[in-house]
């Protein structure tokens, strides 16, 4: 796959009349044809997750800076990294998850932040500042967080008397027998094996293959009870009632709950962070070296650090917020949701995924293949 | 002096396809072979090549070390074979019907066969999710076969149709005059003549099915992983290019081997029927 060349269209229009307007139009067309040589005027290029910043927020930023924001989207970190690796250029800002930030830093693909231009940096919650993937926040400013957890059909699980606060629900045959074929788990080697590791009391950053083999055995024992591996269809399936339990992301569970509510279903969707601990993902703004407008990028990051603007991501998609000043602006029922805003005790139980060396990656991939085939 | 200037003409005619094969098949294949012998990079891609010591068959050894990879290969070939067979059975009557219908309607029918290509592949697969869900077939191996057959059916119909269309009706009339029953006429005349169409259709179905990863991913259940999924996983999720390359090379070699055997058997088969008749 090759990176798409980004068209830089002439945005500035000369204030003029009649013939000069025509000339301006002709120039704009010419500028379009000469795109690779033209300099972008006040356009910020953002490479972002789909549905991660509301149009409303963007509109407010555009008004304030007198510029425009152009977005391209990706659906996972690997896709973004692969496109950048293949030579996609012209992006001022990216929104990668922790381990991808670390990868990008080590590849020297990022521009260091100029903190003098980020007066609102102090709004970041202390527990999210200075992360392991970017000590001292030299390159990244956290934006939002999600937890990988269990979502479930509240009424169904209550009537079956099953626990909803433990990974045992998706790994223990004695529970699974009651919900056979009504469970989906993520189609992701890293996420599913991480859940199994936490249930077994291991770290998700464990490097000893024998510990991972334990996780493989646990998964193989539970697999016959699962309906399928699903990365996105579980949102719909939960909201409709096709499945009763799903392993997935907190913001997706939030959406399933909203969908079920909007459709007037006779059941509700709940989601809980298992007591054994889970995976936490923190997405951050970083400046890509190929971007031509670091000035706008800094302005945008600082704008997004203001509490009112930072709150939108929680109100819109139910993501956790890494910004202390945002909290008063977040809808109370969302701010009170412990699965979206983990209390300190839970937060200590959460771990972020890290990249492994190629050898361990290969070993884990073989285990994953065995999981799929057996 | 028979046919002067044959040499240069022949060169001129065969050079472009030869060049095409060299540039777009052999060269990429060699690059993939080289990639399969190198070491994976820390962030994906390949580790920098510092010397010959960095080259090795490690990826191949890793694949042969565990029976699970052989199982996936076997399973993929079974799915591809089954898909091809079902496509032949479904496509044959249809292609025959189109070939026998009046000239005017033929173009319309062929157009109808191609029509599904007008909408996006993924949209059509999602439609199958809706259809198979209520039938309790979603997330099963059967769903994968249904999806594969659906996607590849036109590739079987079209070559069969172009073959059947060319059959001379006089042959069948002659067979009838000689007292052959309808079944004998089909089995002894139409079918042997249509073998080239079946072979090219089978190649167009069998080989792409082996590489198709979207269908098992969207319609299959917890155990439905095919060789295409495995290769895709190595490149996109696992960032292990050498292993993915090694899998691709093994697949290419197996397919070429199979094609060779089929061609050899077909030639023998044709000689066999000639000897009988």
From TrEMBL, chain A:
A Pfam family this chain is assigned to: SBP_bac_8
Matching CDD domains: PBP2_PotD_PotF_like
Keyword ATP-binding set for record: no
Record GO cellular component, one term: periplasmic space
Principal place of residence: periplasm
Gene Ontology BP, a term: polyamine transport
Domain of life (superkingdom): Bacteria
Gene3D superfamilies given in the database record: Periplasmic binding protein-like II (3.40.190.10)
UniProt key word Metal-binding: no
Signal peptide segment: 1-40
GO molecular function: polyamine binding
Cellular localisation: Periplasm
Keywords: Periplasm, Signal, Transport
Alphabetical list of InterPro entries matching this protein: SBP, Sperm_putr-bd, TAT_signal
Role noted for this protein: Required for the activity of the bacterial periplasmic transport system of putrescine.
PANTHER family: SPERMIDINE/PUTRESCINE-BINDING PERIPLASMIC PROTEIN, SPERMIDINE_PUTRESCINE-BINDING PERIPLASMIC PROTEIN
Protein family according to the UniProt entry: Belongs to the bacterial solute-binding protein PotD/PotF family.
Protein's UniProt name: Putrescine-binding periplasmic protein
Natural source organism: Sulfurisoma sediminicola
Automatic annotation (TrEMBL), chain B:
GO biological process terms, semicolon-separated: transmembrane transport
Signal sequence extent: none
Domain ABC transmembrane type-1: start-end pairs: 73-262
Membrane spanning stretches: 12-37, 72-96, 108-131, 137-161, 193-215, 246-266
InterPro entries: MetI-like, MetI-like_sf
Similarity section: Belongs to the binding-protein-dependent transport system permease family. CysTW subfamily.
Protein name, UniProt field: ABC-type spermidine/putrescine transport system permease subunit I
